[in-house]
Design goal:
heterodimer; A: 177 residues; alpha+beta; Alpha-Beta Plaits; five-stranded antiparallel beta sheet; B: Rossmann fold; Rossmann fold; 3 domains; 23 helices; binds thiamine diphosphate
Chain lengths: 177, 572
């Protein structure tokens, strides 16, 4: 096994039925797990953007990026490592309100993790934290240990490259004859 | 005459579908009807004179026939089938067309759109099933999409690196009444069929070739798909570069071209394989470094600088890391390259190939194609048929020993003269593919070489041959076993012949039952006359040659071995 590191693949595509499947099967064929997946509309009207993270070595990533890019409905695909990206995930935590209130260090936790409180009833409270995986995971561990977590959900990664513009438009022209 | 309704009259989706096919220049389709395609078939009935439909006996036959048609004609092969089992029976052929880059459009009937997803009778998820093995697949759910989808399908199937497209058309779309308005799709913003040529890379490639003392070209099917045979030959001649072809690249160069040094790969020519690991610059043109060509990648052409010409960026560095990639259409990139080259002569280098050919003739070829005594050999049958057709016939093969011996010993004068299942190795491909080949080249002799195993995988297509009186010469190389598997068992499994023996029927009688004349030959003396009888007769013919089970195909590079590790059959 070669050096596997976490890559972020960004895909711009037409918004057509079955696209997610087309992308997913390229991972399946290589036996690659998709770690996170996030799909939404992009800055360009009618064009969707996929952000996928996966552990692989660079040779494989280069290959599958090209294989994804080759699909007719895909406009452009590229890959980056973390150092090229600003990226973020969001996590929600549902905890017991009474437990939260008896916690001596509630304020400390809120400050330390920069938490937002989204909703609160007498029974439960929903906390929100955005950050990198390690950060949202650290909060989860701390809450679990101290007061328990009823429900926990983390989004897929969203990412923006450190270059100035959405790279699609120039990439679209650059390939054409 | 029903064509050219244009928008003057309402037509059903099925009629619009047929009009669209005619508009794309199709005059033949291969197919099989059924409940969800019945309205399409009803429309076909009205267009009998404009669009011939070849009724096969199994949908796998339809898709392989369309592949044979596409490979020989250079046009798109079209298949029409019903939903559920109908389209499911074409899957092998779709996968085959995908891996061998064959332009195919498959049109499948589908249940009405209000029933989709309900497990309706004969409903299957065509999109989900075919997506991994198609270039594009689309479900047409209303009649207004038909002309657009057909035009887009043809555009995608044929441009760039060709491949199969599936259009799944729901019953309601087939019956809805619309005005027929032809549309022409000739660009798609998310699709770049031909990547831009990088001039700097091209110059670097030219510099490498100009400095090279021992250049070697590997020619793949890309040259044929790109209609660049002439451009290739100009390039090879200008720089005096010996060239070997992949299996699917065969017939891109005439067999008697002095620069053509044979075939690469597991059962390729000795020189072609050994020289890959001796050349200083390896120029791969429209080929994809399949593992059957490269053997062990860790020892493959390590000494050489590698230049890769391809239209598909995803082939670059997929299997073999290359030094220079030249993306683009070889019909354009090769002439652009020649402009940067200095004329060269590599006489000494080229002569080194000749001595290896002599070695191969002595060790393998002569024994195989000109045995003086002993039982009939596969190679001599192929050789004799090739001689008798003077290199003008189209060779179609099935898969196995018949395929390898067929392609090793058949000779070609013109391009698009070989139809074989390369990347998928699909047994049962041969007979239906030969049917399609005949429609693509009605004036050429079609010679099919097929084993007793593969013949029985699609033998039902003898019915198609009978019904449409298709002039296909079937040469059955009957060794009463699954020869190629048996060969592996002999070489690598201590002669444990697990499930490779076959008790076979009387094939000549089977052909006779379909009204196809034939003869079985086991003696050398009878071979020539029977071949001539077969070729002189108009119409289909079955020539069965009875061979020993002990047939072996050499040379052979064992799977995963270095390409210089070539078995010749004279090992202790
Ligand atoms: C559909 C399919 N099933 C199985 C195989 C595996 N296979 C490759 S060659 C071969 C033997 C072919 O036997 P036959 O058709 O008699 O041809 P021969 O090798 O004897 O010429 C088999 C079983 C295959 N290629 N395709």
């Amino acid at each position: 096994m070669k050096n596997k590191i976490l890559y972020t693949i960004t895909i711009f595509s037409e918004n057509t039925v079955g696209l997610l499947n087309q992308v997913a099967i390229i991972f399946t064929r290589r036996g690659l797990n998709i770690e996170t997946l996030s799909v939404s509309t992009s800055a360009l009207k009618g064009i969707h953007k996929f952000t996928i993270t996966t552990f692989a070595d660079e040779e494989i990533i280069e290959n599958i990026t090209k294989q994804i890019d080759k699909r007719v409905d895909i406009l452009k695909t590229y890959y980056n490592t973390d150092k090229d990206l600003i990226f973020q995930e969001i996590a929600l935590y549902k905890v017991s309100t009474p437990n939260l209130l008896i916690l001596k260090s509630t304020e400390d936790i809120v400050r330390k993790y920069n938490i937002r409180i989204l909703d609160m009833t007498e029974v439960w409270t929903v906390l929100e934290k955005t950050g990198h995986y390690d950060e949202t995971q650290a909060l989860f561990s701390e809450l679990s240990a101290q007061i328990g977590v009823f429900q926990f959900i983390r989004s897929g990664r969203i990412a923006i490259t450190k270059s100035n513009i959405e790279r699609l438009s120039d990439m679209l022209d650059s390939n054409r004859n | 005459m029903l064509t050219n309704y244009k928008s003057t009259k309402l037509l059903s989706g099925s009629y619009v579908l047929v009009e669209s096919l005619l508009n794309k220049g199709m005059n033949i389709v291969f197919g099989y009807p059924g409940g969800q395609a019945i309205t399409i078939y009803d429309a076909l009935y009205s267009y009998k004179n404009e669009l011939s439909h070849i009724l096969v006996r199994h949908e796998q036959g339809a898709i392989h026939a369309a592949q044979g048609y596409a490979r020989v004609s250079g046009k798109i092969g079209v298949v029409i089938v019903t939903s559920g089992p109908g389209i499911a029976n074409t899957i092998t052929g779709i996968a085959d067309a995908m891996i061998d880059s064959t332009p195919i459009v498959v049109i499948s009937g589908q249940v009405s759109s209000d029933l989709l997803g309900t497990d309706a009778f004969q409903e299957i998820d065509v999109i989900g099933i075919t997506q991994p093995i198609t270039k594009w697949t689309y479900q047409i759910r209303n009649a207004n999409e038909i002309t657009w989808a057909i035009s887009r399908a043809f555009y995608i199937a044929k441009t760039g690196r060709p491949g199969p497209v599936v259009l799944d058309i729901t019953k309601n779309a087939q019956t809805e009444q619309i005005f027929y308005n032809p549309v022409d799709v000739n660009s798609i913003r998310s699709y770049v069929p031909v990547p831009k040529l990088n001039k700097i890379s091209l110059q670097s490639a030219a510099d490498l070739i100009n400095l090279s003392k021992k250049p070697f070209a590997l020619v793949g099917q890309g040259v044929i798909l790109g209609n660049a045979e002439k451009e290739l030959l100009n390039f090879l001649k200008y720089s005096d570069i010996p060239a070997a072809t992949t299996m699917l690249g065969l017939s891109a160069l005439p067999s008697n071209e002095p620069l053509n040094v044979g075939m690469l790969g597991m059962h390729g020519n000795i020189a072609a394989n050994l020289k890959t690991n001796e050349c200083d610059v390896l120029i791969a043109i429209g080929m994809r470094f399949d593992d059957r060509v490269t053997g062990n990648l860790n020892t493959y052409a390590k000494q050489a600088k590698i230049i890769h010409f391809d239209i598909d960026p995803s082939e670059i560095n997929k299997n073999v890391k290359v030094d220079i990639a030249i993306l683009g259409d070889v019909k354009k990139t090769l002439p652009a390259l020649i402009k940067l080259l200095t004329k060269a002569l590599h006489t000494n280098w080229r002569n080194t190939f000749k001595s290896l050919l002599k070695q191969e003739i002595k060790a393998v070829i002569k024994k195989e194609i000109e045995p003086q005594v002993g039982p009939l050999k596969m190679g001599e049958v192929v050789h004799k048929v090739s001689e008798a057709t003077e290199g003008n016939a189209v060779l179609v093969t099935d898969v196995g020993q018949n395929q390898i011996i067929g392609i090793r010993y058949f000779k070609y004068k013109q391009t698009r003269s070989l139809v074989t299942s390369g990347g998928l190795g699909t047994m049962g491909f041969g007979l239906p593919a030969a049917i399609g080949a005949k429609f693509a080249a009605p004036n050429r002799t079609i010679c099919l070489f097929v084993g007793d195993g593969g013949f029985q995988m699609t033998i039902q297509e003898l019915g198609t041959i009978m019904q449409s009186n298709i002039d296909v010469k079937i040469i059955l190389l009957n060794n009463n076993c699954l020869g190629m598997v048996r060969q592996w068992q002999k070489l690598f499994f201590k002669e444990r012949y697990s499930e490779t023996n076959m008790d076979n029927p009387n094939f000549v009688q089977i052909a006779a039952a379909y009204g196809i004349p034939g003869k079985s030959v086991s003696k050398r003396e009878e071979l020539d006359v029977t071949i001539h009888e077969m070729l002189e007769r108009k119409g289909p013919y079955l020539l069965e040659t009875k061979l020993l089970q002990e047939t072996m195909v050499y040379p052979m590079i064992p799977v995963g071995s270095c390409i210089t590790n070539i078995l010749l059959g004279n090992e202790k």
